[in-house]
Amino acid sequence: MNEWVPIAKEYDPLKAGSIDGTDEEPHDRAVWRAMTARYVPNKEVSGDPHLTLFVARLNLQTTEEKLKEVFSRYGDIRKIRLVRDLVTGFSKGYAFIEYKEERALLKAHRDANKLIVDQREIFVDFELERTLKGWIPRRLGGGFGGKKESGQLRFGGRDRPFRKPINLPAMKNDFYSEGKRERAWSRGDSRDRKARERDYERSREPRRSERSWGYGKSERNLEHRVREDREGRATEGRERERKDRNREAKDGKG
């Protein structure tokens, strides 16, 4: 826990599948697939990975010329590689931009993220395929980020960093006083919650009595209907017996 950081320093599919990096069991099949994958970065990709930016969520109509126009304002660009479909030649919506200087790379990483290009908000991060140990791409169940809010999200990257685990030990440092204030607020919040629960229970008491009265009334109605049915059947039986006696008397006179 003491080594917890919001951004992953080494890629672990199991940790990336956890919101705080503390999971011990994978929660979806894609994590299993990433854990068993054996991925080797493409050796045909040239250039310095430590001077390369990953640019995603591009408009499919965005071209290399447009990317050069936007990103050249941060420094001299050595190469732009817009990833395209091998069959159709259409853009896949992401690209890699290699700079000549580290200063330009850091400036673009800081300022170009969430920039609007061709009516789309882009995402900018360092290249991770060749720089982050153990990297598994999204198509094999790894990667970072994700669109499915119900599952298969990946954490530990710039887009979705790990959340702080709730069971981290309290550290005695410069923020100790702030931690005391947070704990005091949590105690006050627990008291407020108990008060709300009491108010809620009190508000439910009349409703319970109403429900019990309604339930008793329905029982009385049911008993009344049952009693009427019994009396009706008894009256029908007596009427039937009277008719039978009259018929027998008529037959005897005949």
TrEMBL record:
<keyword id="KW-0539">Nucleus</keyword>
<feature type="compositionally biased region" description="Basic and acidic residues">
    <location>
        <begin position="175"/>
        <end position="254"/>
    </location>
</feature>
<dbReference type="GO" id="GO:0000398">
    <property type="term" value="P:mRNA splicing, via spliceosome"/>
</dbReference>
<feature type="compositionally biased region" description="Basic and acidic residues">
    <location>
        <begin position="147"/>
        <end position="162"/>
    </location>
</feature>
<dbReference type="GO" id="GO:0071011">
    <property type="term" value="C:precatalytic spliceosome"/>
</dbReference>
<dbReference type="InterPro" id="IPR035979">
    <property type="entry name" value="RBD_domain_sf"/>
</dbReference>
<dbReference type="InterPro" id="IPR012677">
    <property type="entry name" value="Nucleotide-bd_a/b_plait_sf"/>
</dbReference>
<feature type="region of interest" description="Disordered">
    <location>
        <begin position="147"/>
        <end position="254"/>
    </location>
</feature>
<dbReference type="InterPro" id="IPR034146">
    <property type="entry name" value="snRNP35_RRM"/>
</dbReference>
<protein>
    <recommendedName>
        <fullName>U11/U12 small nuclear ribonucleoprotein 35 kDa protein</fullName>
    </recommendedName>
</protein>
<dbReference type="GO" id="GO:0017069">
    <property type="term" value="F:snRNA binding"/>
</dbReference>
<dbReference type="GO" id="GO:0005689">
    <property type="term" value="C:U12-type spliceosomal complex"/>
</dbReference>
<keyword id="KW-0694">RNA-binding</keyword>
<feature type="domain" description="RRM">
    <location>
        <begin position="51"/>
        <end position="129"/>
    </location>
</feature>
<dbReference type="InterPro" id="IPR051183">
    <property type="entry name" value="U1_U11-U12_snRNP_70-35kDa"/>
</dbReference>
<dbReference type="Pfam" id="PF00076">
    <property type="entry name" value="RRM_1"/>
</dbReference>
<dbReference type="InterPro" id="IPR000504">
    <property type="entry name" value="RRM_dom"/>
</dbReference>
<dbReference type="GO" id="GO:0003729">
    <property type="term" value="F:mRNA binding"/>
</dbReference>
<dbReference type="GO" id="GO:0005730">
    <property type="term" value="C:nucleolus"/>
</dbReference>
